[in-house]
Specification:
The structure is a homodimer of 448-residue chains.
Chain A lengths: L1 E5 L3 H13 L4 E5 L12 H5 L14 H6 L2 E4 L2 E7 L4 E6 L5 E5 L2 E4 L3 E3 L12 E2 L4 H10 L5 E5 L3 H12 L3 E6 L11 H13 L2 E5 L3 E7 L2 E7 L2 E4 L2 E4 L3 E3 L2 H5 L23 E3 L6 E2 L6 E2 L4 H15 L13 E5 L2 E7 L2 H6 L4 E9 L10 E9 L5 E8 L7 H9 L4 H6 L14 H14 L1
Protein name (chains A, B): FAD-dependent pyridine nucleotide-disulfide oxidoreductase
Cofactor (chains A, B): FAD
Keywords (chains A, B): FAD, Flavoprotein, Oxidoreductase, Redox-active center
């Protein structure tokens, strides 16, 4: 049995390890287009900002160690075609320029996502970057030298985390967002505003409702960003306007692409083509709250998908359980987290959703360093089913979003949340944890 | 409708507020034996240790404010008898010495617990204290003046929190525990040892397996603690060897006392006597994991019981959902939390329990200040049902015990925990949160 894996980062390497672990008789070969494998891409902003001393810290497993586990790793190998009938892939060895034909019994397509580059960002100018993989991270780090003014385009996870990183490096930072607020896809409006307030408090200039029209440059270096509200001078530009799944190879193999634009799979991570699986950021999943297909490329999801694919390819039986839409980020002294649906998302789906907002403290008000925490809890009128939660507060305090994620997983109700026996002592929470207070209020709101 | 409440701290005041809120036509009178109401007793060690500037900070609601809500509060009023047939209580006004007979339609007995005082602790010597209520807290604070050597007897929540408080005040501290380890009722042995190691690291001298035989004194002040392993010099002694429910009044009323020793109630917090409810630390509850009656006097449980009682007495319908045995405490730089059953508790109940231990970091290992976190996860062989979790780590990191508490509430399985879509970003957790790692290992252990 020969398993071929295309892509050696989160999903690909999880699959490789899991397959070998389950069945030491399988042969596993990983083709990775780039020169790095098995790294934590989510950590890139923290190396750039200086919290993590160098990019090497993000690497979980080296090719040598993987070879020791019986996993063949071929770097700079670009899989360019699939013959699903013959069960072979065409591989370009970018170092030698040779093209190989490699057989497989099971193929995993774990090609991830690419950063979206609008037309104006397709430039040769130095100092203009996306941030997706390790080479991008190294390139940004190199561009820091001598840079003074950064312009970040896009107010999603990466834009927000990069705003903090570049401020930490002493740059002035302007953050441009086309939409009306930052964190637009993650949070409802009031919670977006809290994130923006924190950015501004830390000296980031935030301009929402601003469309980029082009870049200006001089002597091969970027000098500014032209917008519909004027020119912003910048010698470092981060383009963080979204990602798109890398589906070309799956499409070439004849695999079905879902309505989300990502590769469609069943719960075993199998595509519509016999013998071919997909996992990771290029692959869609099922949202347990809405039962719809979604494309939410996040680290845990990618690793879990890879693991499921690895088990199944090696002859086991595992199922991807779906997601509930959990996300979390830190920006300066603020943590923001969400799970399930926002009110806006629920409205967009035509659900009869109702939300309450609670402003409390993350632990007993009288205990030192009690900090504000803001919670929005959302449920379905009629059924009383929990739909989602949003939390903004000190970073350590918002991980309690996981409690709601656990209940969403079990399709639990607001009443269930209110009944929980949560841990209380003054340094950890109020007697009634803010989640319980929110559930109490939401329960009454649902009855009114 | 006249509701009489005996006891004005957590359960009693929650009941009073809730009853008035639900039904503004009811008359609510609270008789409190002491001079304080509505305070957070869990905060006492933090005032003594200096984290909280004074005891007033612990008071949530004053008698004046409660009167404004239409709740009559009578301080220094000791309810000494009940005539359940006549629906009256006998009340001693300790200020005037008069005895009153007060009618009720609904009576709530929320008399809490008392600290256990062994024979040797029944002393007139100055400097010997229990810590249960606000006067105890004030007395300990007064004894701090001039004190240099503290001896704490008992290694439970209060003993541990007081060890930290008294070290913070610059005293030398010896902690005596009769059993083989500290935190004996909360954690399994390995986790108890981690707690002891932290105490010792912070200069607390811990002596387990030590039985107290008596106290020594001079000129009316304590000078030492006589043990089976010799004399320990001390000018401040904290006796924290446990609590017992105050059931005398409930017994006098003819209410059934459960096998736990606390007052037995149904899910509406009603005792076996018509018209009489009980709530709070004096009352037993149902453990949702074992379906047995338990006596776990804790702050959230007391408040929740009071709330349920208040709703029902005022004509509504509420049910106490039971507990899952969640507890948490901080000692110096360490947090410890538990929910459900420990392995030892499960063994004691004859369950086929199996546990795994995971040592990881509370967030991504490469992100600054990643600290060790230790998790024991316990489940039932055969069914795969989760039974409990124990966590020890940096204080902020152990509140994730609530995720397991949520799943225990829903009688979920190890597989459910492993499937959760938990929040991940490098400052908050590893890609696979330590709880997921534990669930993965435990799932495999259950299959083996």
């Amino acid at each position: 049995m020969r398993i071929v894996i295309v892509g050696g980062v989160a999903a690909g390497m999880s699959a490789a390890s899991r397959a070998r672990r389950l069945n030491p008789d399988v042969q596993v070969v990983v083709f990775e287009r780039g020169g790095d494998i098995s790294y934590g891409a989510c950590g890139l902003p923290y190396v750039i900002g200086g919290d993590v001393p160098d990019f090497g810290h993000l690497i979980a497993r080296t090719p040598e160690r993987l070879r020791g586990q019986g996993i063949g790793v071929r770097l700079h190998h670009d899989v360019t075609g699939v013959d699903a009938a013959a069960r072979t892939v065409t591989v370009l060895d970018r170092d030698s320029g040779r093209t190989l034909t490699e057989p497989y019994d099971r193929l995993l397509i774990a090609t991830g996502v690419s950063a979206v580059r609008p037309d104006w960002a397709r430039t040769e100018l130095g100092g203009v970057h996306v941030l997706r993989d390790l080479p991008d991270g190294r390139a940004v780090a190199a561009s820091l030298r001598g840079a003074r003014r950064a312009c970040i385009i896009g107010g999603g996870y990466i834009g927000l985390e990069m705003a903090e990183a570049l401020r930490a490096r002493g740059l002035s930072v302007v953050l441009l967002e086309k939409g009306p607020e930052v964190a637009g896809r993650m949070l409802d409006r009031e919670y977006q505003q809290r994130v923006r307030a924190e950015l501004e408090r830390r000296g980031v200039e935030v301009r929402c409702g601003t469309t980029v029209e082009g870049l200006t440059g001089k002597a091969g270096r970027v000098t500014g960003v032209q917008t519909d509200h004027g020119l912003i001078r910048a010698d470092l530009v981060i383009v963080a306007v979204g990602v798109k799944p890398n589906t070309a190879l799956a499409q070439a193999a004849g695999a079905r692409i879902g309505r989300t634009g990502a590769v469609a799979v069943n719960a075993r991570q199998e595509t519509s083509v016999e013998g071919i699986s997909a996992a990771g950021d290029n692959t869609e999943s099922t949202h347990r709250v809405t039962r719809r297909k979604v494309h939410l490329p996040l680290g845990l999801t990618a690793n879990r998908m890879g693991r499921v694919a690895g088990v199944n390819m090696a002859g086991g039986d595992a199922r991807f359980p779906g997601v509930v839409g959990t996300g979390i980020f830190k920006v300066f002294g603020l943590g923001a987290a969400r799970t399930g649906l926002t009110q806006a998302e629920a409205d967009g789906l035509g659900l009869r959703a109702v939300s309450v907002d609670v402003d409390s403290t993350d632990h007993a008000g009288y205990y030192p360093d009690a900090a504000p925490i803001h919670v929005r809890l959302t449920a379905e009128r009629g059924s009383g089913r929990l739909l989602g939660a949003q939390l903004v507060g000190q970073p350590d305090s918002v991980k309690r979003v996981d409690v709601v994620a656990a209940l969403l997983h079990k399709r639990a109700s607001v009443q269930d949340l209110f009944e929980l026996d949560l841990a209380y002592a003054p340094p950890f929470s109020s007697v009634w944890d803010v989640l319980l207070v929110a559930a109490d209020r939401l329960g009454r709101e649902l009855c009114s």
